[in-house]
Amino acid sequence: MATPVLTRFQLRGADGGPLRGDVRRAGGGARPAVVICHGFKGFKDWGFFPHLADRLARAGLVAVSFNFSGSGVGPDGETFSEPERFGHATFGHDLADLAAVVGALESGTLAGTPPPPAIGLFGHSRGGGVALLHARETSRAGALVTWAAIATAHRWGAETVSRWRAQGKLAVTNQRTGDVLPLYPDVLDELDGDTRGRFDIGAAAGQLECPWLQVHGAVDESVPVQEARDLWDRSGRKSRLLVLPHGSHTFGARHPWAGTTPELDRAFDETTGWFTANLFR
Hints:
Layout: E1 5-12, E2 18-25, E3 33-37, H1 49-58, E4 62-66, H2 83-87, H3 91-107, E5 119-124, H4 126-137, E6 141-147, H5 158-167, E7 170-173, E8 180-183, H6 186-192, H7 201-207, E9 212-217, H8 225-234, E10 240-244, H9 262-279
Parallel strand pairs: 3-4, 3-5, 5-6, 6-9, 9-10
Antiparallel strand pairs: 1-2, 2-4, 7-8
């Protein structure tokens, strides 16, 4: 397959600001697409994401990457220069951003990409939860792959929530850059008001209709592997669960990119195989 060509796009994000992304493709014509969702404190160009997108494009798929409007990452694609957007991020905003990207893709208005015959979803960590929720909401998802996906949207203990409410914000530190970002109670308000279970990731696992591959590291330091097993149980054990014995939250990948690992290579291979088997039909 030819070397993938990267084209950038910009849409309107759920918060009214820019929603920035890339399309990678290695050939013309309509072909299946995969939309890639990063996680909390992540961004589309972090570590393994560009390499995953390149692998998918070389396999004949259209790979679409984007920064959620609440990622906090600015136009340079690397710096957390939009802290207020990060502070007001919610799961509802994430789902709206993902729907906007998928909608533009389906309409043929995303960076000149023809409407794909099938669309797959990929998500890492929180992005895995968001991708799962979106897949539950639409019948058009042809396949789903999640890496280190969260099983619950509410990630904070009572003491943290009490302090967060009292101070009006929670300080979130990016360990790589040292940036301290504010997180306002918007996400708490949203989850507290979710009477219909729209953000219930476990329930979504039980209602999913498309083929789903879960990949999780046995020594994940951020999202315990038990969450993957919980999602597998909630799916009626219909998903495929692949636990990598020495896998961390990022399967050994770092940012800036420092090369691959055996665990990451396995995740790349299994993911590419899953999408090509289920989207090329």
